[in-house]
């Protein structure tokens, strides 16, 4: 079975001298760049947590690359409207839908809406998340644990499941994990655990959807300057946020968004089950 599969990939061939000649390869490798300023032209994306932070930067970057977007957010209406205005400034359409992605029915509503408004879905970005710092494991209540997993992990399952009947070959699912999935966090134990679960989700779903040519990848940001930071950390912690990474600063959302554009585009057509690490220089193992 393995030999038959190898034979189907390309004709048997061998060159006697190193480094070899590309002109003799059958078929010839494709080397012309596929990069385009409008690399998402005509695409439709659904982005959760798209009102602010990384989600906002991704929505605007997608619009600049030619995509229309549905922006899912909880209840930050002012932020969401500002994001929509930034999207439309690039000549693309933005639909705003508030609600709780920890509820499967709402995720199903999001999917029905994007299909109703745009007629298709090409890119799903599972990005919405919450975090509740605690001094110790003992301080993490059952309610907090469930809330963190429902928002951060369950929503990925709910939305990806709802999207499957609409995604086609060449479509892309991108999930936001975190540097904490790899190095841990003593004050964000439940949050880090959800982000580790997302890495497992990406690797497993990518394998499950490979035959359908639907790619699944992740982005694991390090410390990024978003509204979630002052909303969950003290003023003193915010003042030094990001100073512990090699680049000695927190990143900006627009320094992360290009990872999503890349993974959503044909430039990443041979990439699935992988995680990109815009984290200010932290060395990641695993």
Structure, briefly:
The chain contains ten helices and seven strands. It has 286 residues and is α/β, with parallel strands linked by helices. The chain has a seven-stranded parallel sheet, with helices on both faces.
Description of the molecule:
The chain is α/β, with parallel strands linked by helices. It contains ten helices and seven strands. The protein has helices at 2-9, 53-64, 77-88, 104-118, 142-163, 180-183, 189-209, 228-232, 235-239, 257-264; strands at residues 44-48, 68-73, 94-98, 123-126, 172-176, 215-219, 275-276. It has a seven-stranded parallel β-sheet, sandwiched between helices. Helix 2 runs parallel beside helix 3, helix 2 crosses helix 10 and helix 5 runs parallel beside helix 7 (189-209). It is globular. The chain starts with a helix and ends in a 10-residue tail after the last strand. Residues 1-8 have low confidence and may be disordered.
């Amino acid at each position: 079975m393995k030999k038959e599969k190898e034979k189907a990939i390309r004709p048997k061939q061998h060159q006697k001298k190193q480094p070899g000649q590309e002109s003799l390869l059958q078929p010839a490798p494709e080397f012309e760049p596929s990069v385009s300023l409008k690399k998402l032209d005509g695409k439709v994306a659904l982005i959760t947590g798209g009102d602010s932070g990384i989600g906002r930067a991704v929505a605007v970057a997608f619009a600049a690359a030619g995509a229309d977007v549905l922006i899912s957010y909880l209840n930050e209406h002012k932020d969401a409207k500002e994001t929509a205005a930034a999207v439309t400034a690039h000549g693309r359409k933005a639909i705003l839908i508030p609600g709780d992605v920890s509820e499967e029915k709402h995720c199903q509503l999001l999917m029905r809406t994007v299909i109703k408004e745009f007629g298709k879905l090409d890119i799903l970005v599972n990005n919405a998340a919450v975090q509740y710092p605690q001094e110790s494991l003992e301080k993490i209540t059952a309610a907090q644990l469930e809330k963190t997993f429902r928002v951060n992990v369950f929503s990925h399952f709910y939305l990806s499941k709802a999207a499957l009947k609409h995604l086609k070959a060449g479509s892309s699912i991108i999930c936001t994990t975190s540097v904490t999935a790899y190095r841990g966090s003593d004050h964000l134990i439940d949050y880090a655990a959800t982000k580790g679960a997302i890495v497992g989700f990406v690797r497993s779903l990518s394998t499950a959807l490979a035959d359908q040519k639907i790619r699944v990848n992740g982005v694991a940001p390090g410390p990024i300057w978003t509204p979630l930071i002052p909303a969950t950390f003290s003023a003193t912690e915010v003042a030094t946020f990001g100073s512990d990474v090699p680049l000695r600063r927190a990143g900006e959302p627009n320094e992360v968004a290009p990872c999503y554009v890349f993974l959503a585009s044909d430039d990443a057509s041979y990439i699935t089950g992988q995680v990109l690490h815009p984290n200010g220089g932290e060395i990641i193992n695993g």
